Amino acid sequence: MFVLRRINVDVAKRFFSSSAGVHAAKVSVLGAAGGIGQPLSLLLKKNELISELSLYDIVNTPGVAADISHINTNSKVTGFIPENEGLKHALSDSTIIVIPAGVPRKPGMTRDDLFNTNASIVRDLAAAAVKYAPKAFLAIISNPVNSTLPIVSEVFKKHGVYDPKRLFGVTTLDVVRASRFVSEIKGTNPKDENVTVVGGHSGVTIVPLLSQTRQKFTEEELKALTHRIQFGGDEVVKAKAGTGSATLSMAFAAARFTDSLLRAIVLGESGIIEPTYVKSDLFSSEGVDYFASNVELSREGVGKIHPLGSISPYEEQLIGAALPELKSNIRKGEEFVANN
Ligand SMILES: NC(=O)C1=CN([C@@H]2O[C@H](COP(=O)(O)OP(=O)(O)OC[C@H]3O[C@@H](n4cnc5c(N)ncnc54)[C@H](O)[C@@H]3O)[C@@H](O)[C@H]2O)C=CC1
Ligand SMILES: O=C([O-])CC(=O)C(=O)O
Questions:
Q1: What residue range is the signal peptide (predicted)?
Q2: pTM here?
Q3: Looking at domain 2-170, what is its CATH homologous superfamily?
């Protein structure tokens, strides 16, 4: 692993010093002054594959950008607010646009309860991406992800620039949590615990495929772990007691996802697999057009979408419960763009 990273950095150095006209990676964070946006921007400042880190929010971005810009890594940091065509400058020539803009949950809310506020925020940011960076890759963090990715897709379709290979719903936090939770009950190092999590990103739509891990679980462990992975977000919302939801672990997860995407699209590294929510045919025969599963990333973005493989009867049951909710979340997002 270490050797691979070393090679990446060398390739990156060559990439940036090349005069062959290849443009270096500009990554834009929309919602950069928020609970996720700030630590995510901090982590991205360390990424050697980023030449410009472009931070946009409706408030406070100049301060966040000035602060982060003092960190002595190679990338340039720019900060924008809506004034003076800030969004245009934030997005122009972007390679990847990461979107954690929007409101988080308070105790007692579901992610779907955020729809009324976040749907229009995400729709408008997607429309700006269409205008200023139609070829960028978009990573959507704003909840409810099950609906916000379809919203972004519909906006791109409306303007005739839709490429499903470039649009991702970020579900990395579910796999990060699953790995950590398994390691906690088995007393192992989480780096050795890989759990594929499929479906969507809310409650019962989050389906961990624990039968495919290297561990054996009792039925009791299986049920408790599955529930904890499905409702891990609620643990944080409850503990934060009205001040927000997961921000730091989410920033970690989004930085990992962005790095994977950069390595695939900028360096052309092969074999990078991230579970992510994308336009997918896996369950389209059942009317579910977006689904999270293991996706091999490529220079084009989405490469091979891996099938679920062999799953247990319990997991089949979980998938059965996830599909109707996913279908309705997806339809809600699509109808929102059609009607607004
Ligand atoms: N996909 C996932 O796994 C996760 C998703 N989330 C979601 O991420 C979103 C953000 O969460 P936090 O950072 O905790 O919220 P936050 O409220 O701390 O930050 C959100 C930021 O978005 C900004 N914003 C609002 N409207 C905007 C617009 N039109 N353009 C640009 N920026 C805008 C706000 O000014 C604020 O700085 C929430 O919807 C939350 O539910 C949170 C954790 C995990
Ligand atoms: O729970 C929330 O609302 C935030 C989130 O998506 C997560 O932590 O998985």
A1: none
A2: 0.95
A3: NAD(P)-binding Rossmann-like Domain (3.40.50.720)
